[in-house]
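Reopening closed ticket. The problem is back. First fold of the pair:
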Amino acid sequence: MNILSFIVLIPLFSALLLGIVHLYDASKERYAFYAGIGILAPALSTILAFMVSWDLGHQAPDAILQSTLFEWISLGEFKIAVGFMADRLSVVMISFITLIGTLIHIYAAGYMKGDPGFGKFFSYFNLFMASMLLLILADNPIMMFVGWELVGLCSYLLIGFYYKDPLNVKAANKAFILNRVGDFGFIIALSILFVALEGSGYTFASIKANLTMIDTALLPLIGILLFVGAMGKSAQIPLYVWLPDAMAGPTPVSALIHAATMVTAGVYMVARFSFLYSEIAQVGEFIAVIGAASALFAAIIAMYQTDIKKILAYSTMSQLGYMFIAVGLGAYSSGIFHVFAHAFFKALLFMGAGAVIIALHHEQNIFKMGGLKNRMKLVTITMLIATLAISGIPPFAGFFSKDAILAAAFASEHYVIWGIGTVTALLTAYYMFRLFFVVFYAKGAGSDAVLQPLPKTMTWPLVLLAIGSATVGFLGANTAFGGDDWFAGFIALPDMKPHLSHSSEYLLATLNVLMALIGIGWAYKRFAVQAEPMKVTTPLQKLVVHKFYIDELYEAVIVKPILLLSRLSDRVIDRLVVDGVINFAVFGYRYAGIRFAQLQNGKVRYYALYIMIGVAAMSLFILMTLGEL
């Protein structure tokens, strides 16, 4: 099963090769080499991933394939290996990650052509892929955490790729620091697990087998701390504020982060620990509540955004909220199915947005676009398919995956969460078709702009993703919609979702579609003819436009006090106290040295005086000792 190792190692070694070559030769003549190696590596990993998927598909649902490279840590009976594990959950993840990642790499070859950092970009890009694949295939939490941190490092490098712009550096720092906050919870959870298991084994299989060894009072704490890590990585309330700023990186980076890597890691981690969360339903409900709040919150903010990439960023946060609703309520297969379907239409949305941005000479404000439907027909059609998919219109992918999540919430009698998800579906259709109508249909400032031609590497991947966005939903269609729920049967996760009657499913699905159509109609009426930004007049609108002032709140409550404490430490504690003690000691030694140096002045009469004083002192001491004085 060394195939598992190669799935990770191929993009890893390609990243190293590209980085080394770029250091020695960053000339444009190397473009074909960088693009070729950069695309070949994820393509090979895709082939290997599908081979493993095919193999597992013909074995028992609980079959596991394993591969160990070497033993990494050995402390008595405690051992950690650099090992990989493939079950049906992980092969689903690596299959679409490598496939969509390859299409994004092809797209990036056209998008980044001519950039002086082309080789470095593909080095970072392939390292990103390798890190995510390591996270998914790791057979133990320690190796998962290594991949988890490497993904965070790569996001930092790619978000701040254009590091000469201070705003990009600030965005990269923000993403890196906020993820470290979440990762602190993850580290504590792993530490508690290690102590609680008492060295009985630290692979996922052994943790599952020995779960009864852990005090039941500790399980909720472990579950919450693990989810804190997921909050940061998957941009959920309150650790979400890095995601919109992450749009500072090149658009292919945004597509890879939102569709195939990083933000999906939190959902995968909860699903990977499903055996733990199945024992702590109250923590699962907490996860679902955070997911519902994040979905609605992000959708409301997206309604007033004008930057095309930030609209999509908030839509990702909202869709991740749906995924956490599912995994929180125990509908793990529905959550992962939405991860799978979302990857296709979200990659397509970002890549379509990138095509528009390049065609309009790097313009990102949607109200400076407009009227592109006849001038960019292929992009218009593919973006329409992706927009219909994310809005939940049948038969596109988002309809089946989102409907399954809302049905699970309703069936488990979490009616408030179901209601929030249903309202969010309306808002999603509204803000996404607002984007679509403003950019492609309405007459706007960019209607008469001279368009920059797009290379085929940026257009034909859109077609493949559009086909996926239109069809992959059928893999998860249940019997109510003429399917057999193949996806849930294949992935074989321990779902706890109750079943609904067909009539109930039809009713819920009809309501979901109706809400989406209301949102589309609302957007059409407001933006399909003349694109004008919504007037901000009420205090509530101002609050939404300023994203509820959460960034400003963090700045005031967290950032500024930390800066104040840092300045206090620097200017008072460090300079006056620490440096004061050191400087005083140095001054004292220097002063004493100067005084003692006067004893060695080279003058004989002084030395004679010292001898006489010494002899007198010794004589006095002897006489006192003998009792003569």
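Second fold of the pair, where the issue appears:
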Amino acid sequence: MADETLYIIGIDSAPLWIIKRFHRGMRMRGFSEFIERGALTDMESTMPPMTGPSWPSIYTGVRPGRHGVPEFLRMEPNYTKSVVYYDAAVRRPFWDTLATNGVRCLVMTPAMAVTPSSVDGVDMISGFPLPARFSSQRVKAVAKEYAFSGEPEIEADMKSGKVTLREASSIYLKSIRTRSEMSRELIETGKYGMAFICFTETDRMQHFSMNMPDWQSYVLPLYKGISDFMEWLEHRAGEEGATVMLVSDHGAQPIREKFLMNGWLINKGYAKLRPELEASIASSGSRGTVRYAVREKLLKAVNRSGSRKVLYDKLPKSIKGMAKAAMAKTLAGASAEDYTRLHDFDYDMAGTRAFASVANCPVATIFINDGRFDSGRVVKPSDKRALKRELMKELLDIKDGDGRRVIVKVYDGDDYYEGTKLFIAPDIMAEAREGCLLDSFGYLKSGGLFIKPEMAKRGDHLRNGIFGLLSYGRELDYDRIADKKLYVYNVEPTVLKHFGIKPDNDRRYGPIF
């Protein structure tokens, strides 16, 4: 086992282009150290490239089909969606493996890990998207000292205008600095072989600002705040002869347009709306628009608490099905004058062969309505294979008014999820061109397929995040590392190998060094 301490910094939605473009001008010396003395390169995310599946893949070294997190939500047989978080009982994270092998660990707010570790030797504060929980009195006492209860939940106030983007940036920066100070105190007073500190505020700020002319003034201070902590950590690592690793789950980009994937599926005849909603859309006017506004307000009140993923889906499945049926009966005829946000109960599933759901990012997840669902229409395996081939071809043929291709690549869900039994897996994933988001929910009466992004989607994700490495205690071939094709699945075996522990993950994704 290596005696060399390992420090890991996680940054949600950090792209290489932001760091390389701005690290000098913003005096982000924490990042500059990686670029000038170590390695900083791209690292490919999961499919879709989302917080939900990507961080658990970093923790476990396996694809989503094996750790059980396809996104923030998963599809149920009755077409509702349920919240899903990372569960260490399905596939344990690297910190639990390290602790069972005698490496004392500090784990600060790992995204999607909402339950603290119960393994001796792990001091942990759980992470986004739920309020912080604590594995020990030690970390609980420090969190209380700094009045820290988790990442600020201000998205609803940002959408309403109660909190401006400038104020949000300041709130998020304060959260980053608080977490940094807490981590510093714990590291200085504890004897940890591995410390992992994760920051997720960058993702929220980028979502709300990246296509704006002044986005840098909101986003870059957060990177500078993280860099300041990294600078302190690198100084400590230099004194100890330790190694510092930098990871992000995916990247970020400005969004200029949204393509309505279910609108396309409906227009092509693959999906069908309920007759009462079709009638409402056909005859919608001011009264219908008011009723639609009431419907959306009600659904938001039922489905969310702030921006937490707290949904009515937590009800038992039988009650959840009754709630869905009641919603469908009460609100089925509600539609806006042109734009309608589609919900699970808006589809005539008996007439639907394929629909998009769950993901709402530059990668769409499309489900074939087969026997996995209560009203599956595509029964024969041969019919499903034929439909999948047809859809994958037609998706690549989608062009905009200027003749530009909208979808740049399609992926077979069977290949990627490898027959998982942990959730109903998408059958097809479609990746959009740069600057385009694939919306799985909107529909336009006019038949149009492109709309402008809303406030919370001014920025969204990229396939590539970052991987950085900087060692003060061993000689590493940084050029060779930077030239490698890296995936989020490579992180866990790399961490274990650093401590002389044999990885037990997907053999396709070995240690990076």
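Update: turned out to be a display glitch only; the data is intact. The chain has two domains: 6-61+93-254+461-498, 257-458. Residues 304-313 have pLDDT under 50 and may be disordered. Please close again.
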